[in-house]
């Protein structure tokens, strides 16, 4: 996999795939509520512009229908924020590969940056029809000399701007993708020990592939979040009205048995903060209490790990040399149920271990809690990071090795 330092980009037009799928305020104002993904792209963009490249950024936002421009999906707020961060104007084309895009790219000077409008306004980007994807890829490639992949959040997808265009131009991984691959390689190939993996989030079914791929290599596996209740049920405990995937109980029993057989510490919550209702904006802290995880009463649902579990998990992280964390410990968006996620994050940060945080909710939680500086690497791709942890080959990375 080539790096951007391997390419001669001076005076050339570089098509850069970035991941700018940032959250916007729900009031329709277009205000970006978390610019982490834009900030993560800056080192690559600056490296290219400082080398004299004309940078054309391709990105998506949200889930447009793929039938043309939609105001709610416009990258205008992203172009404005990127310009602020770079300290220069970022020109936004009015379309993807049409007249506006071609004119915008043609007017670029070395060191300047332009952004094409939301690539997913064009349905060919995500089409299952390979011919349609390749047609769009050819239109993109016609505007550039070189392709750089820096949108880690999409490298697990076969899409025109991710895989197909990379086959048409000299290519390389951007600095962000390079860092992501390096960080995950370190925790997957030869981690320093003790090696601790912490898994949370809502569904155990989303994490079975990760458990299956890592269970032979970890020293400790700590389970929290909504997925913990299926583990508790597999141990024969009542879980009340907590989230439960009954169809996964047999699979979980298999992993519990395998961990015991291999001498792996697989820990599930010993106590749980339960509530009579799921929190909402109108009622962010419904009636709640801490109970033993061995018997969550009917009518109550588990929404966070309890204080004894927090202390237990923190003790198992304290001497770790490598930590992988994917998925929050509870409904961290509401303060009443954020303690587990907050204190586990603090324990990881204090451990001094090489720590990799999966994208998605885990990354959002760390940023919300202001703990970014305590981690070695916070991934920008939820789905992509999960698939790497599952041991899968990601098509957007494989194409860069061709």
Report on this model:
The chain is α/β, with parallel strands linked by helices and 402 residues long. It has 2 domains: 4-176, Phosphoglycerate kinase, N-terminal domain (Rossmann fold, 3-Layer(aba) Sandwich), CATH 3.40.50.1260; 183-389, 3-Layer(aba) Sandwich (Rossmann fold), CATH 3.40.50.1260. Helix content is 34%, strand content 16%. The N and C termini lie close together (8 Å).
CATH architecture of the largest domain: 3-Layer(aba) Sandwich
Number of continuous helical runs: 14
End-to-end separation in angstroms reads 8 Å
- Say how many strands there are: 17
Average pLDDT over all residues: 94
CATH class group of the largest domain = Alpha Beta
Which structural class fits the helix and strand makeup? alpha/beta
Which superfamily, in CATH terms, is the homologous superfamily of the largest domain? Phosphoglycerate kinase, N-terminal domain
Number of structural domains: 2
Question: What's the CATH topology label of the largest domain?
Answer: Rossmann fold
- For the report, how would you describe the main beta sheet? 6 strands, parallel
- Helix proportion: 25-40%
Q: DSSP strand (E) fraction?
A: 15-25%
Shape: elongated
Output the strand order for the largest sheet: 3-4-2-1-5-6
